[in-house]
Amino acid sequence: MEESDITELAENLRNQDVIEISGLGATNEFACQQSYLNSNKKFTVRLNNNKLVACFGVGSVTDDIGMIWMLGTKYMKNIKQVLLRHGRDWVTHLMIGYDFVYNVVHLANTVSIRWLKWLGAKFLDNPAPEGYQYFRLGGDA
Fold first, then answer.
1. Rg over CA atoms, the chain
2. Could you say which of 57, 103, 108, 126 has the lowest number of CB atoms within 10 Å?
3. C-alpha 135, offset from chain centre
4. Does residue 52 contact residue 44 with C-beta atoms inside 8 Å?
C-alpha cells in the first residue's frame, strides 16, 4: 500500500465500510489515513485494469497483539474467489509476530461477518460500541 492509495480508497469505499466508519464517529479520509499510518504491514489489491479493490493490513496494539483491518471498494465483488482461495493465507501472514489480532465489525455488515466466520474468527462478548462486536483471529479463537 502506498500513501497515494489513501485518497483513492477514501473516495471509493463500499457502502458497508462507509456505514461502519461513520458509526464509529470517523470520516472515510480519517479511517483510511489512520489505517495506513498505524500499520506495520499494509497491502493494496488492484484489478488488472488498475482499479482499486481494497487495502488491508495490521498494526501493533502491543508487542504481541495486532489490530487487523480491511477496507474495500465496489470492486470487492470481483475478487470473491481470490478472497476464498487466499484469505486464510493472508491472515496467517498478517499474524506473524502476534499472538492474535482483533478489531470490531458492524453487526449489520453481514457480508464481513460471514467472511470473518469463514476465516475462523471468534466473536467476543467484550463491550463494544453500540451496533458493533469485537472479533479476534488467532490465540484461542
1. 14
2. 126
3. 12
4. yes
Q: What's the angle, vertex CA 11, arms to CA 79 and CA 16, rounded to 5?
A: 55
Residues in contact with 104: Cβ distance below 8 Å, sequence separation at least 6, in sequence order:
24, 128, 129, 132, 133, 134, 135
**47-78 pLDDT, tens digit each:** 999 999 999 999 999 999 999 999 999 998 88
Q: What is the spatial order of strands in the sheet that 132-138 belongs to?
A: 41-46, 52-60, 65-72, 100-106, 132-138, 122-123
72, amino acid identity: G
Length of the chain as a residue count: 141
pLDDT band at 85 (very low <50, low <70, confident <90, very high): confident
Q: Which domains does the chain have, with CATH numbers?
A: 5-138 (3.40.630.30)
What would the grid cell of residue 118 be? 469463514
Predicted structure pTM score: 0.91
